[in-house]
Amino acid sequence: RKEFVDLYVNYVFNESIRKPFEDFMQGFLRGCPARKWKMFLPAELQVVLQGHTKFDWHLLEKNVTYRQYKKLDRTIRNFWTVFHKLPEEKKKMFLAFVSGSDQIPGYGVEHFKFSIADPQAENPDELYPFANTCNHILFLPR
C-alpha cells in the first residue's frame, strides 16, 4: 500500500504536471532569463515579483502629498483617524483602490508615494471619493 501511495502521489504532484510546467518554464524564461534572476535569494525574488506584504501604515501616511489640502485640514485629519482604525485587510483594499494593487512594489513603502487631492466639486456631498490608479491620486471631497 505504501508503495502505491508513494507512486500515486509522485504521479499527481510530479509526473502529471511535468509537460505543462516545462511549457510554462520555457515561456517564463523567454521573457525573464534565468541568469538575471540568480542574483536574488528566494525571499528577495518574491518581493521583486509580488511586492511587499507587510506595511508600516504610519510611514505611508508620512509620504503622502496633498493637493488643495493641508496636512492639518479637518478632512485629512478625519481621513487618517478612520484609516488607522481600519483592520489590516481593509487597509490593503484601500491600497488597491488607490494604486491598483494591494501590495507595495519591491522598492519599499518608504519610496511609495500617493497624493490626496480635493476634486473641488461644487457640492462635495454629492461626490464619492475616487482614485487615479496610474498616478496614485485619491480624490477626496471635503
From TrEMBL:
Cross-referenced SUPFAM superfamilies? Hect, E3 ligase catalytic domain
One Pfam family name is HECT
Q: Tell me which stretches of the chain form a coiled coil.
A: none
What's its catalytic activity? S-ubiquitinyl-[E2 ubiquitin-conjugating enzyme]-L-cysteine + [acceptor protein]-L-lysine = [E2 ubiquitin-conjugating enzyme]-L-cysteine + N(6)-ubiquitinyl-[acceptor protein]-L-lysine
Q: Which UniProt keywords apply?
A: Ligase, Transferase, Ubl conjugation pathway
InterPro entries, from UniProt?
E3A/B/C-like, HECT_dom, Hect_E3_ubiquitin_ligase
What is the active site of this protein? 134
According to its UniProt record, the EC number is 2.3.2.26
- Where's the HECT domain? 1-142
Which one of the record's GO molecular function terms can you name?
Answer: ubiquitin protein ligase activity
Q: What is this protein called?
A: HECT-type E3 ubiquitin transferase
Protein's organism:
Fregata magnificens (Magnificent frigatebird)
Q: What gene name is listed for this protein?
A: Herc4_1
